[in-house]
Each structure stands twice: as C-alpha cells, then as structure tokens.
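The records we work with from here on pair a chain with its fold. Taken together, the tokens spell out the fold as the letters spell out the chain. The record below shows the convention in full.
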Amino acid sequence: MPRFPARSGRQAGGQKGVNRPLALGVNVFFAFGLNDTYQVFQLPGSAMPKPPRHKDQSLADLRHEIDRIDEAMHALLIERGEIIERLIAVKKTEETGSAFRPAREADMMRRLVARHHGNLPLDTVESIWRVIISTFTYVQAPFSVHADLSAGDASMRDSARFHFGFTVPFVPHMGASSIVEAVTESKGDLGLIPAFATAGAGPWWAALEFGTAPKIIARLPFVERANHPAAMPVFVISRVATGAMVTETEVWSMRVSGWRAAAVNTVAALADVIAVPDRAFDGAALLVSVERGGIGAVADALVKIGASIRSSALVGSHATRYTITDKRHTSS
C-alpha cells in the first residue's frame, strides 16, 4: 500500500489563520520518460471548606462524570439536528446545488485544530467532526460518494470513510473518467479522484472544462500532517453553488506543446502540477493548482522555456493546503 507522507511547511496559523502554500511540485506520469499547585490557609476561627481534590473522587464518581458528559454531548447533537431541520427549510428557498460547502468545512476544520488541546489525539477529534459534519450534510440533502479505486482500494476507502463516514453511500469506480461521468449525471453527488497522476488515467480533468460540468471543489485531507490516517491526496469534484466555493487555490486545465524535462523544474517553483502526455499537440495536458491569480506567472514561465500554450480553462478551486507539524496534534 503506498504511503503519502505529509510535506513540510509552516505551522498552522500563517497568513490570515492559514498556511501559505507549501513547497510545490510536479507530479508527472509519462510513458516516455501542567498542572499548578496551590495552598489554602484557614483564618483563625473561620470554617473555610476545602476545595474538592481529584484524588478524593471514587471510580464511581469519575464514571458518573463521564456519563454526564456523554449525555450532554448527545443532547447537543440532537439540538444540532433540530437546527438542521430549520436550515433545510431555509435552503429550499435560498440555495441550489450540493449541500456540501467546501469553504465552510475547510474553515471549520482549521478552527478545530486551532482550539484543540489535551491528550485526545487530533486524528480522533478530526474524524468525529468529519462524521458529524458529513452526516448532517447528508440529512440536508442525500448524496453519494463516488470513489476512484485505481490508485489503491484501501487508501481511497480510508479517505472516503474518514471524511464522509459510513452513513453516506460509497460507490466504487475504477478510473477517473467514470467518476466524472457519474457525478455529471447526479444532482449533488461527490466524486473522489487521486490528486496525482495514475497509469492510464489520461487528462480526465478536460471533461470539467465545460460550463455545465462539475468542478474540483476541495482537496483532502483538509488538515495535512505526518501519519494522517487518511493521507492519500484526493480531489473532490461536484456541482456546488458559486458562493460556497473556496477560491484560495485555483485549478486550471492547460494543454501545451513543447513540454520537456526542463519544464518540470520551472513549473514546480510556482504550482502543483499533474502532467500526462497529450499526443494531439505532441506535448502535455496539465492540471495546475496555483495560488489565486497566479496562473499568468505559470503561463509566462512556460513560454520562456519554449513551450506553447494551446488552451487553458479554470476547472475548479480549493482551500490553500493546510499543514501542521506540532507533534502534540498527532497520534503516535
């Protein structure tokens, strides 16, 4: 099973609360080459009660506290569900498209990381929140998750179940093109496609260039780190209301001629790129993920090394990649 190590980068909490883009690269598949202590002093003649001490609590007391917390959490989930019912009524008149809101979800996960502390592993907290968020999204508007297993069944299933839970139906496919077709024919389904080149996949993103086609709306995992339990980098495609999109990173489909080895290092300094052969132009078909507004610099760099840009089209966007390296936030 392939491993997908987290890429080094800044700590969480960079510009505007998010990381700046990490070191970039090109993914190419070419057939050709503390607790404080304290003291309490009793005044003479006074009867000051002593504060409760943890060591005075019995096992039964502690279990009672746990039961109280569990019941409170359950009650809050029920209350959340009641709010969702009201939200459904509002959305029927104000919004269209998939109930999945990538901008809001990326922000929710970043805030979760920022406030998390204690001995509960972030892996556990993140997975719980992902199940809560995705399940309530499914309650609002049922959808399925279509997943391309061509890069590894186990890794993709881990990603799908970690991010969307078991309530949302999982539909396996073999090949990115099949995912695009299934999502295109659906009303609000999501498609999961590996965010790297795979043998025989071809430029599947070209099918996203049409106005009515689904778009890339997110990149998973939302929070990248070493030893993430669902580390496979995945693009999420769907139809989502324009206002729900997050546009920190733009994703472009480009076709170029004159693509050669030198182009790899040139583009790697500016963007994340997937490149596959494009025999129609004796060049390459590229999927370029670049900071918003940065596609012009990528195009200029390609021209300077002799490549010709035959076409380009915006095929989606997603949140800036967010990486944490604090070991307190990871499980051993």
Q: What stands out?
A: The longest strand covers residues 308-318. The chain is about 35% helix and 20% strand.
